[in-house]
Amino acid sequence: MTEDENINLVFAIGALVLVASALFSRRIGFAELVRNILAWGAIFALFIVGFSYQREILAVWSRVSGEMTGANEQMVVGDTLRIRQSADGHFWVEAKVNTLPVRFLIDSGATTTAMTLRTAEQAGIKISESPFPVVLVTANGSVEAQRGTIQSLQVGPMIAKDLPVVVAEEFGDSNVIGMNFLSKLGSWRVEGAEMVLEPPARVPVE
């Protein structure tokens, strides 16, 4: 324990001694006295646990509150982006497509980055008008998508310029970062419940 923690523990013990003295000075029945002693003993035990494991408790609270609010899912450390695994088991990242904030699922099984038609239009993506769409096989069947180009995709401190993307209305609300972005990085890996993205030697990614 630190010096501050020791001081707090001394105050807690002192408070317990005062409470015990007050209990014994009162004229109450033996059964009630035992109940009061057990209750205050439990409170004291909670104080001990709180003082001994306060860092661990704060870490757990931070993680739980992050899950509930969606905050603290990603953190930039230098030029590295660390993304915490979400409750659904996936890795989600808040990125910027041109200037539009967009939430992406990172999927190493996807060859190309994909966006919904509505999000692509809001971000000002250049979408091909070719009459020959790209046919993609998804978990929900085949989807016809149009090719496009993201002028600027920023993920943490990393920026990709003129990144190919496929766009389709059938993607619903799912935007996916695929291998055509991940392969441009210096490295990417999963460490426990975190995904770590590292830029190449030269930034921005081109």
Q: Which secondary structure elements does this structure contain, and how are they paired or packed?
A:
Blueprint: H1 3-25, H2 30-52, H3 54-69, E1 74-77, E2 80-84, E3 92-97, E4 100-106, E5 113-116, H4 117-123, E6 126-127, E7 134-138, E8 141-155, E9 158-168, E10 176-177, H5 179-182, E11 187-191, E12 194-198
Parallel strand pairs: 4-10, 5-9
Antiparallel strand pairs: 1-2, 2-12, 3-4, 3-8, 6-8, 7-8, 8-9, 11-12
Secondary structure tally, helices: 5
The amount of beta strand, in percent, is: 25-35%
| CATH top level assignment of the largest domain | Mainly Beta
Mean pLDDT: 79
Description:
The chain has about 210 residues and is α+β, with helices and mostly antiparallel strands. It folds into two domains: about 5-50; about 70-200, Cathepsin D, subunit A, domain 1 (Beta Barrel). It has five helices and twelve strands. The protein has helices at about 5-25, 30-50, 55-70, 115-125, 180; strands at about 75, 80-85, 90-95, 100-105, 115, 125, 135-140, 140-155, 160-170, 175, 185-190, 195-200. Strands 3, 4, 5, 6, 7, 8, 9 and 10 form an eight-stranded mixed beta sheet that branches. The chain has a four-stranded antiparallel beta sheet with strand order 1-2-12-11, with no helix packed on it. Strand 1 (about 75) and strand 2 (about 80-85) form a beta hairpin. Helix 1 (about 5-25) packs antiparallel against helix 2 (about 30-50). The longest helix has 23 residues, at about 5-25. The protein is elongated. The two termini are about 50 Å apart.
